Amino acid sequence: MSSTVPSPNTALRMNAGSARSTLLTLLGEFVRPEERPVWTATLVRAMAIAGIAEKSARQTIARVGASGWITGQRLGRETYWSLTGRGCRIIDDGALRVQSMSRNAQWDGRWLVVAISLPDSYRAERTRLYKALSWAGFGNPLPGMWVTPHTQREDETRRVIEHLALAPFTCAFVGSGSRFGMSDRQLVERAWDLEAVASHYDGLLDQFGRNRPRSGDAVLATHVRLVNAWQRLPFIDPALPIPLLPPHWRGRAIAARLEALREHWHDAAHAHWRAMAGVVPVV
After folding, report:
1. Which of 67, 77, 273, 278 is the most exposed place for a label (fewest CB within 10 A)?
2. Cα 45–225–267 angle (5° rounding)?
3. Phi first, then psi: what are they for 266, rounded to 5°?
4. Quick check: 228 and 17 in contact, CB under 8 A?
């Protein structure tokens, strides 16, 4: 995570399929790997294929440019856009978190616990904090208490707290559960609604599992929508270690199926993107 907190969820917190979310998916999936600029016309056309109206697409490109994630250069009557250093960090940080969802990390039985109580006047900070903690895989079992088995995210969490200047309101520690009070399983049940997470995966499989796009535009649109949904998973699935998951957990199997679909459409979608993008200046 970069010093701008919370960078990944800043990029991904908007509604799936929104103009902003779709643009950031295009930047992360196509522009970042190519490390080449992209014409406004290419972005507008790709967003149109994904269901975004031209006016909304152009406004969103301008706003994302104003945010400092991309920078534009004019060439005659046309404008091309390049990712800034900040934009690259946001995309790379988000990609790393999404990729970590498929890892079956071992768990040593310890929790990272953050207890925080904010005054009513800290509404904006509370909203930003809760989004950042959700992105980091925290659950909220009790009022003011956040927990995650991903103890390796302690430094990331510290940067969030310090950036928001909330250290005076925070108590944080790493440790295992005691022999009294809630068990680890009960803590999970209180902190996350895993049945709702599983239902979300079911919905994604229903949406994409039977999709058979044929044309270049259809493949690109389907691929972009799937990647967009995939990028939002850290907000929904805490990626709990296997010992903390319910028996017969179907989320991992569905995630593997979705990842296979993404790989299946990847080459055709990228080929169609390159054909649309045409020749761009080398910067």
Report:
1. 77
2. 80
3. -55, -55
4. yes
Q: How far apart are CA 109 and CA 177, in angstroms?
A: 8
**What is the SS3 string spanning 60-71?**
HHHHHHHCCCEE
Q: Are 96 and 52 in contact (CB under 8 A)?
A: no
Round to whole Å and give the CA distance between 175 and 171.
13
Cα–Cα dist 57/149, whole Å = 39
Quick: pLDDT tens for 64-110.
Answer: 999 999 999 999 889 999 999 999 998 998 888 888 776 666 799 99
Domains and CATH numbers, the chain: 12-105+193-282 (1.10.10.10), 110-176 (3.30.70.120)
2: amino acid identity, one letter = S
Scanning 70-193, the segments in alpha helix (DSSP H) are 85-100, 123-135, 154-163, 184-191
Cα–Cα distance measured from residue 187 to residue 195, given in angstroms and rounded to the nearest whole number: 15
Q: Which residues pair with 80 in a beta bridge?
A: 39, 73
pLDDT at 153 over 70: yes
Cα–Cα distance between 22 and 225 in angstroms, integer? Answer: 8
Tokens 């103890």, residue located: 151
Q: pLDDT of 99-150, one tens digit each?
A: 877 666 679 999 999 999 999 999 999 999 999 999 999 999 999 999 999 9
